Amino acid sequence: SGGTFDMGCTAAQQADGNCVAAESPVHSVALTNDFWIGDTEVTQGQWQALMGNNPSNFPSCGTDCPVERVTWYEALAFANAVSVAESLAECYTLSGCTGTAGVDLSCSSVSINSSSGSVYDCTGYCLPTEAEWEYAARAGTDLLYAGSNNIDDVAWHSSNSSSTTHAVATKAANAWGLYDMSGNVWEWTWDRYDSGYYSSSPSTDPEGPSSGS
């Protein structure tokens, strides 16, 4: 369910000393739309079933391991493929593309297929906005990691992973039943990046900067 939360590096996280400047200032964000989110990362098996390839650097990890080495454009293409598979309208139109999804897909532009032009109004699958992702990761708590103050409880990371990915949902979930929101692999959101965006971000349903990497 939608709701309001403090986004950015909170006081508890600042005290831990692991914040960077782009995670400040902390600011209140209201999400006015309810949304679904996958309870694990997209797996290699899910990707291969829809896209017909496996770009992962760790294919021997297995079909229950997260897919990785996926570009942002490829993540959008995958979301569209899930929509098509479930007879929903595609959220994105990708234009000026070279390559194929899983093989260095890159596009010159992306547009949103919704009546308002907002990603929040898509009827098909889409990447979460950064605000949606952080809201889901925090799950109504102010902890250092998604589900615990102890990183080993909830995350595969540099000190316990043996430098490889691991099957999803093998660490504890957060309070909303979501796994691996900390650790294992990095995850794409819809938002582009601007180091100063938090200073001017809308307080309601932010969608990220209009341009940026």
Structural overview:
With about 210 residues, this protein is an alpha+beta fold. About 20% of the residues lie in helices and about 10% in strands. The chain contains 5 helices and 6 strands. It has helices at about 10-15, 45-50, 70-85, 130-140, 150-155, and strands spanning about 5, 25-30, 90-95, 100, 105, 110. The strands form 3 sheets. The chain has a two-stranded antiparallel sheet with strand order 1-2. The protein has a two-stranded antiparallel sheet with strand order 3-6. A hairpin with a 2-residue loop joins strand 4 (about 100) and strand 5 (about 105). The longest helix has 14 residues, at about 70-85. The radius of gyration is 17 Å and the shape is globular.
Uncertain stretches of 5 or more adjacent residues:
none
Helix content: 10-25%
Which word captures the global form?
globular
**H/E series:** EHEHHEEEEHH
- Sheet bearing the most strands, described? 2 strands, antiparallel
Over the alpha carbons, how many angstroms does the gyration radius reach?
17 Å
SS field, number of helical segments: 5
Q: Note the gap between the termini.
A: 30 Å
Sheet/helix structural class:
alpha+beta
